[in-house]
């Protein structure tokens, strides 16, 4: 019979197989490129954000917004100024009462430990105003300074009045607490004893009275010298203090120069041991 031929499998070149496999598989090059671009873009965005944050903080720290007083702060200080101008320094008590009704609450209370039974209300407040005006007709209060903190305004005050041709000047501090635009509580502390001494209504207890009690009197009064004939307040006192301070400095310099001169003998030219 006819002999059977053994078919030898045909060898396909390796490079041809590679081309065939490459042609049979879907291309992924474009998707991979999109993914790479997206990752790089995301990384750049994050990096820019991290760099921008410290820069923004630095800008904020270096250039803070200007600090301005709030409208409430301005209005409260303005109310205090109007209170002393239109109520306490007003010679027309009827007009003063109308102004007090605008600035002082009906629930107002004067907190004074020496008065155990304070009467609340605007009318009670006006009783103090009338009492001062009737007793001392030329009574005047000057605001030296105003400080605002929270719901309170502190007034540094200077007082001036005369009686029987004697004039008195003294100082005081008043703390006023607000609710909205009305004063609801007041704390007042004045150097009334100084006013009484200047007006001749009491003697100066520092160097008078029981000798054994003088240390106590001097400690409470804060001085051991007699009360001055003329009392300075506000800017006048500050100017006086500056002049006194300059005098102290001049005297101190002169004392130092004199002490240095004592250490040198002008006759012999030799230094002297002191």
TrEMBL record:
PANTHER family: ESTER CYCLASE, POLYKETIDE CYCLASE SNOAL-LIKE DOMAIN. This is SnoaL-like domain-containing protein. Residues 1-30 are annotated as: Disordered. Residues 1-20 have a biased composition (Basic residues). The lineage of its organism: Eukaryota, Viridiplantae, Chlorophyta, Mamiellophyceae, Mamiellales. SUPFAM superfamilies: NTF2-like. One of its GO terms (biological process) is polyketide metabolic process. InterPro entries: Cyclase_SnoaL-like, NTF2-like_dom_sf. Pfam families: SnoaL.
């Amino acid at each position: 019979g006819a002999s059977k031929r053994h078919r030898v499998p045909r060898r396909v070149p390796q490079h041809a197989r590679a081309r065939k496999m490459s042609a049979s598989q879907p291309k992924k090059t474009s998707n991979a490129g999109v993914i790479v671009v997206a990752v790089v873009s995301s990384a750049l965005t994050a990096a820019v954000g991290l760099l921008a944050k410290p820069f923004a903080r630095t800008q904020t720290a270096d250039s803070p917004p200007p600090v301005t007083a709030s409208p409430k702060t301005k209005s409260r200080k303005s109310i205090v100024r109007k209170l002393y101008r239109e109520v306490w320094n007003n010679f027309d008590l009827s007009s003063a009462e109308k102004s007090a009704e605008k600035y002082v609450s009906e629930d107002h209370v004067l907190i004074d430990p020496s008065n155990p039974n304070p009467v609340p209300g605007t009318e009670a407040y006006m009783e103090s105003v009338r009492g001062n005006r009737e007793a001392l007709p030329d009574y005047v209060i000057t605001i030296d300074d105003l400080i605002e903190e929270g719901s309170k305004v502190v007034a540094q005050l200077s007082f001036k009045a005369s009686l029987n041709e004697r004039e008195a000047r003294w100082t005081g501090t008043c703390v006023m607490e607000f609710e909205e635009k009305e004063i609801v509580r007041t704390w007042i502390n004045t150097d009334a004893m100084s006013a009484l001494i200047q007006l001749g209504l009491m003697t100066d207890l520092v160097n008078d009275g029981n000798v054994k009690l003088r240390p106590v009197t001097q400690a409470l009064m804060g001085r051991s010298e007699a009360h001055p004939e003329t009392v300075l307040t506000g800017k006048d006192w500050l100017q006086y203090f500056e002049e006194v301070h300059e005098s102290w400095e001049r005297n101190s310099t002169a004392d130092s120069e004199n002490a240095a001169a004592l250490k040198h003998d002008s006759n012999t030219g030799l230094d002297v041991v002191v």
